[in-house]
Write a structure and sequence with these properties.
single chain, 616 residues, alpha+beta, Immunoglobulin-like, six-stranded parallel β-sheet, 14 helices, 26% helix, globular
Length: 616
Amino acid sequence: MKKIIIKEYTEYSVDFPGGIGALTFKEAPEEPYLSIRLPYKGVYGTGERYDALNRKGRRTVNVVEEQFCNQGEHTYCPAPFFFTDSGFGLFVDTKRVCVFEFQKEIVVGFPGTGIEAFRETTLYLFTGSPTEIIAEYLSLLGPPRMIPRWSFGPWISANRWNRDAHVEEVLANLTKYRFPATVLVLEAWSDEATFYIFNGASYTPKGGGESFRYEEFDFSQSLYWKNPKAMIDRLHDADIRLILWQIPVYKKLEPQDSPCIQHEYDCSWAEEQGLCVSGSQGKPYDIPQGNWFAGSRIPDFTNPETQRLWFEKRRYLLEIGVDGFKTDGGEFIYQEDVYFHNRLSGGEMKNGYAQSYIAAYAGFLEDWREKTGTEKTLFSRAGYVGQHTTPILWTGDQKSTFEELRSQLRAGLSASLSGVIFWSFDIGGFAGPLPEAELYLRATGLACFCPVMQWHSEPESGQFGDSSQTGIGTNERSPWNIALVSGRGESFLEDLRFYHNLRMKLIPYLYEESCFCVENNAPLTRPLIYAYPQDKECLDIEDAFMLGRSVLVAPVLTAGCTVRRVWLPEGNWTGFFDSVSYQGGQWVEAGCSLSDSPDRMMPVFFKSGSKHPLKS
């Protein structure tokens, strides 16, 4: 690794496998830039990317953005880091928005910022294999964080669950339809104002600088939650952990929202004490109109006092057994003339805010673990450099289409090549009309072999209209509801059940491989270019990957597919389900018809000579 700090016009030569690469800094009159000349056919990384795994020929903007569905070139979790198939890597250590042009030459620029952006930027140059480059990149940012063992079982979620009756219903359905689950996520649990008080609770409001104990809430008149602690105990008795949704805002209540005195106290205190991100006039910054949570203010997590009070108000949730948080949002910096406690501006924190928010929650949960020995976790949509220290990433909101399924896999694999170890996606999509049965089954098969397996669905009044299509069922993406709406019945449920039960059997392998990845700064899902960098057939393969060191997964990502082509790299391979042997270094035609049994619907292989993942 070589470290370079740009101060003036400079030219460097870097030795790396395959030839000499020249990096040149050019102090152009308006926009200085870096030009990197080197031979390469593939370039990877740059964070979570939905449009392509190999970035060559693309203009790639490193900026945190909220894009609801059909992300295309947008991303929630970018990273100014890349590496090439020829053994060169670069990390541009900046929070500012920067642009990579991956053409014949690679050009790095900071549009509209001038020379100062370069003068405050450190460049880290790497050489070696993808394994070596990613490991060294992660070593700069802090050690990866492991997730709890229970995180590897199936996760279940639906925005419509907003009361005890819904939780009891889903527990009953898990039993009725014989599906396992280890994590339940509640999004619509709070008062939708403070986002730390259960909906329906009665209490005496406190000053904005004070926090509550659980015993100070009365649920006897609640239409939603009668006894949250008892509900959590009930889930734990069923060996299911509870994750609660969070959003980093002091929300601007709309006319249709219920008044909330406690929220008014909290907002006033935050403004008086300077706990919010500031605008140009010294007043709190308001999220501009036209954006999610417009008019709301956002907590400044670079301020230690903001962190202290924010988490004091949420500490009782951990005390009653909540197992972690779904830290949604964080893409809320839309202006440069906003300012933070750490003296950085909006131009510098456009990308940095999301990670500061998630890192604050990670620190809160780590403090709890150190004090109690109890493991918690996060499940986050946005992020930036260092996300491997604040897991887990999920790929955000997508519609229920095969096109979106393919983009979800690209996003997860590109995040993996940017150092993200743990990631997830919503099975069958999140929004719009319910997925067709074929899409849902294919997505379930893929999710079974991803770091985290979860189904989820948008609010019933979703942005894409009626979700049930047929007038029966709900918009819930549960296996039993998809079976009901599609009319597919028990045989369809049996196929889905196969993958959920298989997931439970894979937990020992997933946990063992994850421990190895955390110890060695390596991704858990590995695109073939990572695992076999000398194999030129792997340059553009974005529909197959290694899960850990032994398993090759080839998901089915198109409708009507009965046979799919799979590249088996060098070595000997064995069918995961049928134990058929294959010689590597060739393309094979693998059957994947939905008319087959579920263990024949998706090609999966493991390295011959390695222990089968399902055998102890």
